[in-house]
Design brief:
single chain; 247 residues; alpha/beta; Rossmann fold; seven-stranded parallel beta sheet; 7 strands
Length: 247
């Protein structure tokens, strides 16, 4: 799939899954906009893409700040006048007992992980409908369906992302804008070689996931050839959420 002349925006693309997604779209010929809060990470990601012959631009953005989102899409409109793909990837975690979680911490997680998805999607849709449509992928999580202790804010935000995904798919469908979600499981963004055999073996797929697994899923969901897919959730977790575990 070649994406010349396509403009793709990836939030939280300075490292981890977002960086892999951005690099993958750039390798297919797209112009990639890296929206990242950390300037060092954003600039490094752009440099890496350019060294591989790709096109990328960094726009410093904190998606928990509505004014930053408005500025981000204003710059995209001014520079390219179009947007073909949006990947809502930016997110933060919070591991804290519900007895101790403050309102400010709750708001920080929800505003970053959920509110930003709505605001970015709305601004993206305004650009996309002018040029005949586009595709949005929201990065959710298998934690929208299952949890560990002390993850209430994160789980709630990712559950909200799934509900928002199908709501937007219905609302934006008349403008030929497709909206889907990818829910990653264990995706190792650190040193993959340091994983233990038992880490891999607990997965039905027999391995832990990699950021490239999520990048390929995004490519699939945003391909024009797959325009019959909208409002869907694609779980990429090596089968772990389908595995019954007894103690």
């Amino acid at each position: 799939m070649l994406l010349e002349n396509q403009v793709v925006l990836v939030t939280g693309a300075g490292r981890g899954i977002g960086r892999s997604v951005a690099a993958t779209y750039a390798s297919k010929g797209a112009v990639v906009v890296i929206a990242e809060r950390n300037a060092g990470d954003g600039e490094t990601a752009v440099q890496s893409i350019q060294e591989q012959g790709g096109q990328a631009v960094f726009i410093q953005t904190d998606v928990s700040v509505p004014a930053d989102i408005e500025q981000l899409f204003r710059r995209v409109d001014e520079q390219w006048g179009r947007l073909d793909v949006l990947i809502n990837n930016a997110g933060i975690t919070m591991w804290k007992s519900p007895y101790e979680l403050s309102l400010e911490e709750w708001d920080r997680v929800v505003n970053t992980n959920l509110r930003s998805v709505f605001l970015c999607s709305r601004e993206a849709a305004r650009l996309m409908r002018r040029t005949g449509g586009g595709a949005i992928v929201n990065i959710a999580s298998t934690r929208a369906h299952m949890s560990e202790p002390d993850t209430e804010a994160y789980a709630a935000s990712k559950g909200g992302v799934l509900a928002l995904t199908h709501a937007l798919a219905v609302s934006l469908g008349p403008d030929r804008i497709r909206v889907n979600a990818v829910s990653p499981g264990w995706i190792e963004t650190g040193d993959y070689s340091m994983l233990r055999p038992e880490d891999h073996e607990q997965h039905p797929s027999r391995r832990v996931g990699k950021p490239d697994d999520i990048a390929r899923a995004c490519l699939y969901l945003t391909s024009p050839e797959n325009d019959f897919i909208t409002g869907a959730e694609l779980v990429i977790d090596g089968g772990m959420s389908r595995k019954m575990i007894y103690i």
